[in-house]
Structure formats: structure tokens, C-alpha cells
Design brief:
The protein is of the alpha/beta class and 590 residues long. Helix content is 43%, strand content 17%.
């Protein structure tokens, strides 16, 4: 991010802090994409100064349970009294305050749903374990999203209900100014928000912009209107103007975008006049009246605030999600994992790697103790635990990955960019080593392909094998893809996830049977690529041609692989690409 982009992102971050401080519960909250550090601390200090009441902030650990959030049975008091005793949950205790969620992307889905539902309904309801209680709550949320990859994000059940989405810039905190707003200005805006008028054409433009950016949930559409009114109140206006609509669009819609807006109707070819049929007063969504100047302003503001490359990464993440769903059935169905992050509990018996959750077992058994004591013919004073009371912990774990590098070592590749391809593989090898992924190397040249390096975690061995890889001869592309598919099958049988990274210029000239027939070689290569797509293995094709040709992109399409031309890729682009393809956005849960 250059200096100009950083300044713009920081200005939006300060504006978002002021808008949130003016209406925390009305907007629901703010999701801040940033790693821990001075920038985030400085931004949070601005929020504290604007709200002026630090005592209202409450920090929530990412491992918080649903019971602790909502409240429910006080286990110690219940066991002591012999009857159900309730305890107040965090959400009810935080009425009128603000929740701080560090590492919000690690928040269990059930806990995220509890917070989101309480935000939207303004009610915390507890109806279980003999407790039946409801309480009204109003609070705001600051969720810090510390995910390294785009696949790591706050659960939709919560993030969809947080109006503002910000991304803090990577810069020095000493170079950034403080907020231009004051606590007095924020307090005045909070009192005047309800009196701000938002005209129907502005509402239509904001909702239309959300739809044009691929946002299908209704909540951001409602949130962007509220944010626009808050922006107007901050600037001392009684009516929403273009500036306020643009501010709201940048803060609410930009980071939610899943597609670029289509060109305005006036930019397209003007249709030929049609005969009057008496229905000319009706216009569809694509007609000129459906997109006026206000919507253009909103879309321009939203598009300008989208970080570079965000849409491409979103598409790659979606591709990875589809492919992981295809191969989900190929995982292990054996014993439960013994390691992983806690992700709730479920009814069941311990054994085969399943761990008994003692606290939840006691919690389930406590309400039944008085009844069981009455039916006990020989009272012992001990707790009566039945099979139905047993609870086991659910663990969330990330599957192991094996990245298979398939390198074109033929004469055409060696003549062009084999050295650069080896350099790219070395960069990716280092990244795989950091993630503790296994790596394998398949090379194809002359009449066939060979596994130059079986799956290993030794970075030194992989680099040594890569450096010794010779170049020259024909391009048996189909043989290389088939060898990678066979190795991927072996990886799957070990309950690991294969990722195929193919580096080639795509110019096959050796057919699958070993004959030197360029036409037949291209047909065989595409046929092998389609088998990769049919199985659902995640893949990345890096085009090593000096000037990328359509043949490489066509081959990637046949494989359903992410396409990346090497001439336009630096080390960061390569690493981002392999992360997007290799990281499974969904972790298995047992």
C-alpha cells in the first residue's frame, strides 16, 4: 500500500471510529481487519477518546462459550442448593457498553451467532437447564479480525450484523494524525441522528450500489443508510448529502464487495427506438432511471475504497471452497482427532480419541439430582450421572496439506524461463515450510514424467533436488499432469489434502503414448487436465512463457485451476496465490 492509499485508508478509519462512537448500538459495531500493533492501538485510542467512557469496554476472549455469553445454570450454586440457580451472562452484563473481540476470526460459530442475534434483536433469551429468562440489551461490538489470509474471517453470523468494515493501513503510527473529531462533536451527533432526513433517491442509490457490488444480504443495505445519516449528523447537516452517502458506502460496502459494478447504461450502446406499445412508462433495472447521478457517486466511492487485489483473492477463496467441498468425502472416517481448538460440546461417550468434558457433563446432570435422589433406594450423597448426561468435547482441526510442484523441464521451458521457474518454486517451498506442509516435486521432459522428490518436509532436500533438475527435450505435458494426479491420489489415501502447482508454458508436443505429435499432445494434455477437475483437486497453474499465450489460460480452465502468469508475478504475488489455493477455508470438526 503506497503513501496515498495509506492516508486514504487512515482517513476512512478515523471517520469510521467517529461514526461508530456516535451510534454504537444502532450500527451494531465495527469489524477492523488489522494485526495487533501500534496502528491498531492508536486507532482504538481514538475510539476511547471519542466515546469518553473507557469503563464501558469489556474484553471477550475468543474461546468464550455460548453458556458464558447468554448465562444459564450456575453449576456450583445449583449443586450446593439442590435446585436450578441461574447466572447472568456476559451479554446481559454488558448492556449499554461495548464488547471488544480480539482474534474475532477464531470465535466459535455458536458464540458468534449468539452475539449477532443479541445485536439484532436487542434481547438475550435463556431457556434451558430449568432456566427461563429474557433481558433487553443494547451494546456495540468492536471485532478485531487478525486473520492472516482472506480465508480467515469473522463468522458471517456476526460480521453481517456489524455495519462498518475497516482495514487499517500498514504504516508508522507516528506518521498518522489523530481524529479530526472531538467527543463533544460525537455527543452532539448522537443526539441528532434521529432527526436526519435521508431522501428516497439516496436510499435507492445506496441499496442499488449494494446490489451492484454483489452484496445480497439486506443488513448492509439498512446499515449503509444509517451510517449515511450518522455521517450527516457528524458534519452538522440535517439531510444526507452526496458526501455522506459516499462516506457510508466506503465504510459499509467496499470491503463486502464480491464483484465490480457493471458499466452505467449510458456507457453502453444506445438501443434502437422501439414502436410504442403503450407500456413505455415501465422500466426495468437496467434502464437509465434505475441508475442516476447519486448511485454513480456511491459506486465510485465504494470502488475506490476496495483494496487492490481484494476481489481476485475473494474469487480464489471461493474457488478453494468449491474444490474442498468436492473432495470433502475423501477424508478419514476413522478415530476422532486428539488435538485441535475447542469448538463446543456434544452428547456422546468418551473413547477412540473422544475426550469427556467434565464441566459440561456436570452441568447436564445437575438439574436432575433432586429427582434422582428421590428414587435412590440407598442414598450415598454422590452425584448420579447417567449415560445421557455424558458430554464430549468437539475439536476443530486443520487438515495437513501436501503441495505437489509439477515443473516443465522441457527444452522450450529451459530456453525461456526454467531458471525463473526454479526461483519461483524456491519461494513457494519456503512458504510451505512455514505452514509445515509437505512438498513433492514432479518433473516432465523428453518422453515422460518422473517423481523427482516424494512428499517430504525437508526444505534442504527439496532445494537440492530442484537445483539438480536438468532441462531439455520434448514436452510431455499430459504425462506430467497424470503423474501429479497419481501422486495426489496417494496423498489422499494418507488422509492429507493435495495441492497441485503446475509450472509450464503449456506448449505440449509429446502425446500420452510418447509419440511426437503436437496436435495429439495438446488433446491429451487437456484430457488429463479435465481429470484433475473431475476429481476436485485444488490447483494453481503458473504460466512460465515470456509472453503468456491463450494456451496456458485454456489449460488452467480445463483443470479449474487458478491462473497466474509468471512474467507479471513477484514473490508476494506468488506467495499470495499459493496461500489462496493451498489453504482450505473450512476446517474439519469432530
Amino acid at each position: 500500500m503506497d503513501l496515498e492509499q495509506a492516508d486514504g485508508a487512515w482517513d476512512d478509519a478515523l471517520l469510521g471510529a467517529a461514526i461508530f462512537a456516535s451510534d454504537p448500538s444502532g450500527l451494531g459495531g465495527v469489524c477492523v481487519r488489522s494485526q495487533p500493533g501500534p496502528i491498531r492501538d492508536f486507532w482504538f485510542a481514538q475510539v476511547e477518546n471519542l466515546i469518553g467512557q473507557p469503563s464501558e469496554f469489556r474484553r471477550i476472549p475468543c474461546a468464550v462459550t455460548e453458556d458464558r455469553l447468554l448465562g444459564g445454570l450456575d453449576l456450583a450454586a445449583t449443586l450446593s442448593a439442590g435446585r436450578p440457580i441461574g447466572e447472568t451472562g456476559i451479554l446481559a452484563e454488558s448492556d449499554g457498553g461495548i464488547l471488544l473481540l480480539a482474534m474475532a476470526e477464531r470465535l466459535p460459530a455458536s458464540a458468534a451467532a449468539c452475539i449477532g442475534e443479541a445485536l439484532e434483536r436487542g434481547i438475550v433469551s435463556v431457556q434451558r437447564d430449568g432456566i427461563d429468562h429474557q433481558s433487553e440489551v443494547r451494546f456495540g461490538v468492536i471485532a478485531f479480525d487478525e486473520g492472516i489470509d482472506e480465508d480467515d474471517h469473522v463468522a458471517a453470523a456476526l460480521s453481517d450484523r456489524l455495519a462498518l468494515h475497516l482495514r487499517l493501513p500498514e504504516a508508522s503510527a507516528r506518521e498518522l494524525p489523530g481524529s479530526p473529531y472531538s467527543a463533544k462533536t460525537v455527543a452532539r451527533a448522537a443526539a441528532e441522528i434521529t432527526g436526519v432526513v435521508c431522501d428516497e433517491d439516496v436510499v435507492a442509490a445506496l441499496c442499488g450500489a449494494a446490489f451492484a457490488l454483489g452484496i445480497r444480504s439486506f443488513r448492509p443495505s439498512a446499515a449503509v443508510v444509517r451510517a449515511a445519516r450518522t455521517s450527516a449528523a457528524l458534519n452538522g447537516r440535517s439531510r444526507v448529502e452526496e458526501e455522506d452517502a459516499g462516506n457510508a458506502a466506503r465504510l459499509v460496502l467496499a470491503l463486502r464487495a464480491t464483484m465490480l459494478p457493471q458499466p452505467a447504461p449510458e456507457e453502453q450502446n444506445e438501443p434502437e427506438p422501439q414502436e410504442d406499445t403503450g407500456d413505455n412508462d415501465r422500466q426495468g433495472p437496467g434502464d437509465d432511471q434505475a441508475r442516476g447521478p447519486m448511485m454513480d457517486v456511491v459506486l465510485d466511492a465504494s470502488t475506490a475504497a476496495i483494496p487492490p487485489g481484494l476481489l481476485e483473492r475473494l474469487k480464489q477463496a471461493e474457488l478453494g471452497g468449491r474444490k474442498s467441498a468436492k473432495s470433502a468425502g475423501s477424508g478419514s472416517h476413522g478415530a476422532a482427532p486428539r488435538r485441535g481448538r475447542p469448538a463446543g460440546v456434544k452428547r456422546g461417550s468418551p473413547g477412540a480419541g473422544k475426550r469427556l468434558n467434565v464441566i459440561e457433563t456436570l452441568r447436564a446432570a445437575a438439574p436432575w439430582q433432586p429427582l434422582r435422589r428421590q428414587t435412590d433406594t440407598a442414598p450415598t450423597g454422590r452425584l448420579k450421572i447417567t449415560q445421557d448426561d455424558l458430554r464430549i468435547s468437539r475439536l476443530k482441526h486443520q487438515g495437513k496439506a501436501t503441495t505437489i510442484f509439477v515443473v516443465d523441464a522441457s527444452g522450450s521451458s529451459a530456453m525461456h524461463r526454467l531458471a525463473e521457474a526454479k526461483g519461483a518454486v524456491e519461494l513457494l517451498l519456503a512458504d510451505c515450510y512455514v505452514r509445515r506442509d509437505q512438498v513433492a516435486l514432479v518433473a516432465f521432459r523428453n518422453q515422460g514424467a518422473e517423481i523427482a522428490l516424494p512428499p517430504t518436509r525437508s526444505l534442504v532436500r527439496a532445494k537440492r533436488c530442484l537445483a539438480a533438475l536438468p532441462g531439455g527435450g520434448g514436452t510431455p505435458l499430459a504425462a506430467g499432469i497424470d503423474a501429479a494426479a497419481q501422486l495426489a491420489d496417494q496423498v489422499v489415501r494418507r488422509d492429507e489434502t493435495p495441492v497441485i502447482v503446475l509450472l509450464t508454458d503449456g506448449r505440449a508436443n509429446i502425446a500420452a503414448d510418447g509419440s511426437a505429435d503436437r496436435g495429439r499432445a495438446n488433446i491429451d494434455a487437456k484430457s488429463s487436465a479435465r481429470r484433475i477437475r473431475a476429481v476436485g483437486y485444488r490447483s494453481l497453474l503458473i504460466d512460465t512463457s515470456p509472453r503468456p499465450q491463450p494456451v496456458g489460460r485454456e489449460l488452467a480452465a480445463e483443470m479449474d485451476a487458478t491462473y497466474l502468469p509468471l512474467p507479471f508475478a513477484d514473490s508476494k504475488v506468488l506467495n499470495d496465490a499459493i496461500r489462496s489455493v493451498a489453504h482450505d477455508p473450512s476446517a474439519s470438526m469432530v
